[in-house]
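Pilot study result, target chain (266 residues):
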Amino acid sequence: MADACRTLLRDLPTSIAPEGRGFIPGHNVIDCASILSVDVPALISVQEAAQQLNVSAITVRHHITSGRLPAVKRGGAWWLDAREVARMQRQPPGAGRPLNDEMAWAVILTASGASEQAARMARRDRYVSRVNAWVRDHPLADYAPRLRARAQIEEFDGHPAEVERVAARSDVLRTGISAGSEVGLIGGSGDVEVYAPASRREEIVDGHALDAGAGAVRIRWVRDELWPIIEEGGDRGRAPRVAVLLDLLESDDARARREARKALES
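Predicted structure:
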């Protein structure tokens, strides 16, 4: 398997997109060591992804460079994680421009009942009224893809004991499958899904010996400037309720997705 991995990922670059606001170094990159935890058949080509998503190859490449679809590059060809393509197929980007991370969190906090934190996130009175109007006019279950800029996602594998320690950290907020039972939905899971400030990436990843790639840990990195307000809008180490539901909509568990949609629509 290791030889196959080295052959497949020969000449792999260290990143796939230019650094900029909201970009997390290492995001959307799979190294040879971590890909040992992913079956090689789980990687599909741009053309295969385009057919599955019913879009053009150009659109798939745009999703790669924008960070929406994790991918690796061998020579001149991109290879995508089939699971991420399936997730996008279940929840396509939809019409309309995605909200930036600040506005996305303002919407999430408003819908979660954290109006004070939402106003601080929106910063200006006219933006607060826009956020309120957005929440009123856009059913969250249908417009969830426009809120994806709230965080950058990475997956990791790790020792079960370290996975538990990640979830128990005081500087993360449980979400998705890790917090479903706390919002009255699907019960717990051995997997861990959390939000964390982007500046803690090295400390969390190295401190818990996590390996980038498919695994039991899903971390949603948030800009440090936004973190204190999001943390305030949460509840005892859990992300704001609507954030938990939106993350459950992206779950691989069909029951979790159904329950989250029902809760968002109620």
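One observation from the pilot: The two ends are 48 Å apart (CA to CA). A full batch analysis is planned for the follow-on phase.
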